[in-house]
């Protein structure tokens, strides 16, 4: 049996995903500092967040919890996604 690999989505990766999937340019430092602000603050709407969720599901071959596409802040999103990646659920 192999050890389960532990993946974590960083703020930098989230900023890159926001740019690639939704065309939203955000500085990773600003995203980190304002992680409790709503995604709207950064110009990301629900469709953009859905694109990020789809990209992560494809990347990690794992269905993320339905709540991921309803997260309001980067901090909540990263906590939920990283928790799911850690547990594999």
Automatic annotation (TrEMBL):
Species name: Streptomyces lancefieldiae
Name of the protein this chain belongs to: Acyl carrier protein
Phosphoprotein listed as a keyword: yes
Residue span, Carrier domain: 8-89
Keywords: Phosphopantetheine, Phosphoprotein
InterPro entries attached to this UniProt entry: ACP-like_sf, PP-bd_ACP, Ppantetheine_attach_site
Domain of life (superkingdom): Bacteria
Taxonomic classification: Bacteria, Bacillati, Actinomycetota, Actinomycetes, Kitasatosporales
A Pfam match: PP-binding
Keyword Aminoacyl-tRNA synthetase set for record: no
């Amino acid at each position: 049996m192999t050890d389960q690999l532990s993946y974590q989505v960083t703020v930098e990766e989230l900023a890159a995903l926001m740019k690639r999937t939704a065309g939203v340019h955000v500085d990773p430092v600003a995203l980190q500092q304002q992680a409790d602000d709503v995604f709207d603050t950064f110009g990301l709407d629900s469709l953009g967040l859905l694109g990020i969720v789809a990209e992560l599901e494809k990347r990690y071959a794992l269905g993320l919890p339905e709540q991921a596409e309803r997260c309001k802040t980067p901090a909540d999103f990263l906590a939920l996604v990283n928790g799911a990646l850690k547990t594999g659920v």
